[in-house]
Amino acid sequence: MPIATKITESMRHSSWIRKMFDAGIVLKKRYGADRVFDFSLGNPDVPSPAAFDQALVAEAQKTGAHRHGYMPNKGYTETCTAIAEVLEKESGLPFTAEQVLMTCGTAGAINVIFKTLLDPGDEVMVIAPYFTEYDFYIDNHQGRKVMVQTTADLLPDLDDLAAKITTRTKILVINSPNNPTGRIYSAHLLTEIGKLLTRSNQTRQSPIYLLTDEPYKKIVFDGKRCDTAFRFYRHTIMATSFSKDLSLAGERIGYLAVSPLIEDNATIIAAAAFCNRVLGFINAPALMQRVISHVLNERVDVALYQRRRDLIYNGLVEIGYEVIKPEGAFYIFPKSPIPDDVVFINALQENLILATPGVAFHRPGYFRISFAVPEREIIGALPGFAKVFKQFK
């Protein structure tokens, strides 16, 4: 076998999301794309804002030396400054360009901060259900995953969280709005998490860092807001991107921000900039750094996602599915009508519907639907969802 044993094993347990996406390609070739309803991949399809298109054209037309050359590993100072101004307004904290590092998307940011902070065996707490790639990111940097459960409302079980903190706990990862549930962590919940971590830090030599994963923070519904965790806990670090709120998933542009309240924030950022280089990311893309500095207050037309959310939610509830209405992002996470969500997902696939089983997010008995798809696909799939539901009921 030419590849490493560990990678062979990891590939065997790799992302269900991609497995379903690949299955969709096969089914579309066999039955025709118009007959297959693929809800597997969270690939944003709402057009980028016009302001982004205009900024892209304007920046692409500029010429001169080093327009596309090497730059500081942190990224362009002017871009970091523009982001810091937004963060200061959102959080009320004195952010500067010094606390911002441009990265190759959120995945790049998370890998960089794990590389920066983790010693072998340090524990990273994740809250199930969660984006399953976290498992691989933690393993990349010799961390140890500790899984915290949620309550029936798919929000963190704070008692379970408190019980699982140990002397090796280094990072707690949260994601709001959440993939796969669409739940938003309220100001009250963030306050309680902050208090819990602060109490834990009183008996520790070094703090637990709160890593907040926020690429969906501007995709919120029904007039709700997504509060920034920086306001609720001093040892907060944010990883985010413009993949979802500007529909730029393929451009791999994001950033890492370290709270200015962290005493050694300058050391953390300096180390993260080093890790950005040695991990091979080097820099976030030059052109995209310049472009996004002009559109930091823009977002896609969220009303389109909300309409789709309502369409799939109302349709599933009418059929009889048990599901919590998403408050943000573009996912819905219903209960499977049978305990074995993989069996249920396979039955959907037999009816040319592709969704992702809850086991992929470490929450068996559920399944995820991405509604980053045209409304006609949601409408077309509802009879199939009804048929399979009745099959098991």
Concise overview:
With 393 residues, the chain is an alpha/beta fold.
Topology:
Blueprint (H helix, E strand, L loop, with lengths): L4 H8 L3 H16 L5 E2 L11 H11 L16 H15 L8 E4 L1 H13 L5 E5 L5 H8 L3 E5 L9 H7 L4 E7 L11 H15 L7 E5 L22 E6 L12 E5 L6 H14 L7 H7 L9 H18 L11 E2 L8 H10 L2 E2 L1 E2 L9 E4 L4 H18 L1
Parallel strand pairs: 1-10, 3-4, 3-5, 5-6, 6-7
Antiparallel strand pairs: 2-8, 7-8, 9-12, 11-12
Helix pairs in contact: 3-10, 5-9, 11-13
Structural description of this entry:
The chain folds into 2 domains: 137 residues, Aspartate Aminotransferase, domain 1 (Alpha-Beta Complex), CATH 3.90.1150.10; 242 residues, Type I PLP-dependent aspartate aminotransferase-like (Major domain) (Aspartate Aminotransferase, domain 2, 3-Layer(aba) Sandwich). Strands 2-8-7-6-5-3-4 form a 7-stranded mixed sheet, with helices on both faces. A 3-stranded antiparallel sheet has the order 9-12-11. The radius of gyration is 21 Å and the shape is globular. It contains 13 helices and 12 strands. It is 41% helix and 12% strand. Strand 3, helix 6 and strand 4 form a beta-alpha-beta unit. It has 393 residues and is of the alpha/beta class.
